[in-house]
Amino acid sequence: MSEKPVHPDDADDALVRQARLHSTRLQHQADDGQSSVTRHLAQIGVLGLTIVVPMLLGLFAGHWLDHACGTGLMFTGALLILGLILGSWSAWNWIKRA
Questions:
Q1: May I ask which residue range the UniProt record assigns to the signal sequence (predicted)?
Q2: Structure confidence by residue, pLDDT tens digits, 3-46
Q3: For the chain, which has fewer Cβ within 10 Å, the N-terminal or C-terminal residue?
Q4: Per the domain annotation, does 66 fall within a domain?
Q5: What gap in Å lies between CA 36 and CA 15, rounded to an integer?
Q6: What value, to the nearest 5°, has the Cα angle with vertex 91 and ends 89 and 95?
Q7: Is 56 within a domain?
Q8: Rounded to whole angstroms, how far apart are CA atoms 80 and 82?
Q9: What is the pLDDT of residue 41?
Q10: In a domain, 81, yes or no
Q11: pTM of the model as a whole
Q12: What does the alpha-carbon distance between residue 90 and residue 50 come to, in Å, rounded to a whole number?
């Protein structure tokens, strides 16, 4: 059984790709210097809006459906929770990419 030799330039190796990505990010951070406080606050604001906007859309759509169908708060609650789930998922993906 011959094993494939491990080579640092092997692009198929997930560990090597992750190490290169991490190294690139560290180099960009070193080139840019310290991130400002306002940049971090802006990122927090974007994350908040990423979660809140789908929730509000679900709230308004659910309210409209409940009013049109006369179902109380059934659609409002369901679409509000759905908006929370979608917004949280979207924020999580945004954080993973950053």
A1: none
A2: 555 555 555 688 888 888 888 888 877 776 666 677 777 777 88
A3: N
A4: yes
A5: 31
A6: 115
A7: yes
A8: 5
A9: 74
A10: yes
A11: 0.60
A12: 7
For the chain, the DSSP string reads -PPPPP-TT-TT-HHHHHHHHHHHHHHHHHHH-SPPHHHHHHHHHHHHHHHHHHHHHHHHHHHHHHHHHT-TTHHHHHHHHHHHHHHHHHHHHHHHH-
Q: Six-digit token pair at 45?
A: 């604001």
How many structural domains are present in the chain?
A: 1
Q: Which of 2-6, 50-54, 74-78 has the lowest mean pLDDT?
A: 2-6
Under a CB-based contact definition with an 8 Å cutoff, are residues 75 and 65 in contact?
A: yes
Residue 4 lies in a domain: no
